[in-house]
């Protein structure tokens, strides 16, 4: 079947996955207000295109965290990707490599980080703060030794939000899917009514990150440090002052605090507040190339794409993830040209308007 947009791959993935695994991928926390708001916020933003411009030499290539990428896109960290396809993270990382975009290895990957990094391309490593600080910093060292190009420190998960779909399903990892980067014991596999075993496991393992945690990670590595999960202007300024090379404006896809503002709604003021002192990326709600252009117009240097990449993985493995990235490339080039932009940085000169529709 020909997939003409990401929604086509979303439908294919939903058909391919068991119901409780689809819920684990697609669900949000609480009443899923923030999950829905992420898309609604994008749909309220309209661009003001410019006309009569020479589009010769247009390019989607960008520099992200000191490296070149074919698109202003990185594959976001997503846990336990062998839930969605037997090759899991290896298939997704190969697709990102071949598409010329960074791939973010999750701390909770179901394949050891060294094996994923060995795929090549531009691997980044995503870090959660653990109760065992020594083991946490060992993960940073392993990532650096494996050739990762950045540390993406997720700061909005002291514990998992109440994801009611998983709780109603009594969701637990199947035996063949494990937290491959450390010994998770049996907690994530223990099924019980009304309990998410994955959330139970993370409650045992995770701790609340603080600015002292950021300092500890910063002192432990020479890699660029990116803080993921920033929504407040004050936190963005402090992150830049603490030496972060970048921040990811994100409400964790609506999976942590239900009612947290969509990242796209605060992106512009955050980008203005840090004023080039660190890179600003956006995560959450990206469903097409036009969304990437909107994010760029509001000041993002790149976006992270998580769920759509996993739709591709579930639908067709490595080829499916590559198809997602190729569709984003086609849509972004189309949107840029129709808006009168020859480069992603040029999009920052586009006007935006907020509509009551959507």
UniProtKB/TrEMBL annotation:
Record key words, sorted: Flavoprotein, FMN, Oxidoreductase
EC number: 1.-.-.-
Domain of life: Bacteria
Residue ranges crossing the lipid bilayer per the database entry: none
Keyword Flavoprotein among UniProt keywords: yes
Segments forming domain FMN hydroxy acid dehydrogenase: 1-357
Cofactor(s) it depends on: FMN
GO terms for MF: oxidoreductase activity
Family listed: Belongs to the FMN-dependent alpha-hydroxy acid dehydrogenase family.
Protein name, per record: Alpha-hydroxy acid oxidase
Species the sequence originates in: Amycolatopsis samaneae
